[in-house]
Every structure is written in structure tokens, then in C-alpha cells.
Amino acid sequence: MLGEYFGEISDGRLNTRRFILLWLVLVAVFVVFALLIGTSIGIAEHLIGGDLENAQAILRENLAIPAIIAIAVFFLLFAFAKLNIIAKRARDTGLPGWLSAIIIAGLTGASSQLAGGVSSGGVGLLLLVILTFIPTNTFRR
Questions:
Q1: d(C-alpha 18, C-alpha 122), whole Å
Q2: Whole-prediction pTM value?
Q3: How far apart, in whole angstroms, are the C-alpha atoms of residue 60 and residue 112?
Q4: What percent of the chain has pLDDT over 70?
Q5: Nearest C-alpha neighbor of 7 from the set 76, 112, 66, 87
Q6: Could you report the per-residue pLDDT of 4-49, keeping only the tens digit for each?
Q7: Spatial separation of the C-alpha atoms in residues 121 and 111, rounded to whole Å
Q8: Contact at 8 Å (CB) between 101 and 87?
Q9: Which residues contact 135 (CB under 8 A, 6 or more apart)?
Q10: Is the C-alpha dihedral spanning 120, 125, 130, 136 positive or negative?
Q11: How confident is the model at residue 121 (pLDDT cuts 50, 70, 90)?
């Protein structure tokens, strides 16, 4: 499964069912990562004695740089995996893979800036649904 997220960068293809499965797994990994961050902050607060402000100050002093690096690496890997499966699905429909993935990411990001962040999930979800249900080889010549 990791090969599908990080491999076949220039020529891989994904059918609809596999794309949906990989997308849901990627979302689940992202949610679990966010929950782990929240849980670890809660555990640190409990170990320090229940004072959230004190726990946050101690974490900032001791773990700020390693935590920022770890979170940045995770988000870069997540973004690459997301773009790679979008590119593979676009290639399967006959569209240019990475160009389509970058355009979808740009449209999603631009809509979040224009609408104050309210509609970015909606635009991204709409583009995902459209890409998901376009039949294989629709745009092939």
C-alpha cells in the first residue's frame, strides 16, 4: 500500500475503487495522527499535574523544534501521498497526472483563501468526487 502512495510517480494509475480506498485510509491516518497529538498533550498535562498552561510551557521549552520537524515531515509526506494518488487517478481518466493534481490543490487552496476557509473543504470534496466518478479513459484520445 505504501508503494501506491509513494511509488509509480510518473506512470501509475488507480481505478475508482482503489482510489476511494486509498483516500479513506489516508484520511484515517491523518485523523489518527491528530488524535495522537491531542492525546500526547493531554498525557503531558496530566503528568505535569493538571495545569495546561504549565504543561504547554514545558513542552514548548523542551520539545518545540523536534515536534515542529516531526509534524512538518508528516504533513509533507501526507501532501505528497495525497497528490500522488490524485495524479494517478487523473492519469487513469486520461488527464495529465501531476498537472491535474497541482491544479486541484491550487483550486482548493485558493478557494479557502477567498472564502475565509469556509468552503475549502467543500471545493476539495467536490473536485474529489468529480475525479472519483469520471470513468477510466474518458479523456484518452
A1: 22
A2: 0.79
A3: 29
A4: 90
A5: 87
A6: 888 888 888 888 899 999 999 998 999 999 899 888 877 877 777 7
A7: 9
A8: yes
A9: 93
A10: positive
A11: low
Spatial CA neighbour of 19 closest among 84, 77, 79: 84
Residue 40 has a pLDDT of: 81
What angle (nearest 5°) sits at the alpha carbon of residue 38, between those of residues 32 and 39? Answer: 85
**Does residue 93 contact residue 16 with C-beta atoms inside 8 Å?**
no
What is the C-alpha to C-alpha distance for residues 41 and 55, in angstroms, rounded to an integer?
A: 8
Helix (H), strand (E), coil (C) string for the chain: CHHHHHCCCCCCCCCHHHHHHHHHHHHHHHHHHHHHHHHHHHHHHHHHCCCHHHHHHHHHHHHHHHHHHHHHHHHHHHHHHHHHHHHHHHHHHCCCHHHHHHHHHHHHHHHHHHCCCCCHHHHHHHHHHHHHHCCCCCCCC
Domain assignments of the chain as residue spans, ordered by start:
2-133
- Grid coordinates 505535569 are at which residue? 48
* 63-69 LR contacts (CB < 8 Å, sep 24+): none
